[in-house]
Amino acid sequence: MKKWKNIKVNQQNRGFELDGLALFKTYIDVLKFHAPGIAPVCDESGWHHINEQGEAIYKERYLRTFGYYCNLASVWTEEGWFHLSTKGQPIYKERYSWCGNYQDNLCTVRDLEHNYFHLNVEGHRLYLENYRYAGDFKDGVACVQKQNGFFTHINTKGEEIHSIEYLNLGVFHKGFATAKDAAGWCHINRQGQPIYTRRFALIEPFYNGFALVEEANHQKQIIDESGKTTLAL
């Protein structure tokens, strides 16, 4: 077991501990360790990253740093946002108005004209399309808001996986995604089709075959994958 996996953020969120014992020093703010054993921290010098020995892994300081995902970390500077390698080196020359975290080796960013799109781990765009919003990829599918204001799902080539547009969408989880149309929220399949006729005011993804939903009158229920109520809460 690598040491960093057992290092925890303390209750004050200003340092780290291992087996109940304080490590390193007191910081202004910290985030948890992520693979390959690096954590974002802020001290009087600014935001940066440390290794599991508490040592800064580079000399630069930033307005904000975030955790490493897929061995890349998002950082914020006065010039804009970008991603660092585990050696503290920018992986591309572009600067963005915001960067997400890499998921499935892909990342959503917002450019200086407020367009959203996705990058690969080399920092190259996956496709030419610009979106009003783009979420993280999960299992090769991401939610995006098109220029017409509606949401759909795309694959890693930027292709729509179904032709149905919604007012809002969630990611696919165990085969189904949450979706909102003019009548309310429901669950849809990968073809973009609702899996039942009911609509709800609020909805959660299915968890082992059942989902928490809320009616317009604020009544919460548990439904199954056919949309049938199995329990009123």
Automatic annotation (TrEMBL):
GO terms for biological process: methylation. Pfam families: WG_beta_rep. This is O-methyltransferase family 2. One of its GO terms (molecular function) is methyltransferase activity. InterPro entries: WG_beta_rep (IPR032774). Keywords: Methyltransferase, Transferase. The lineage of its organism: Bacteria, Pseudomonadati, Bacteroidota, Saprospiria, Saprospirales.
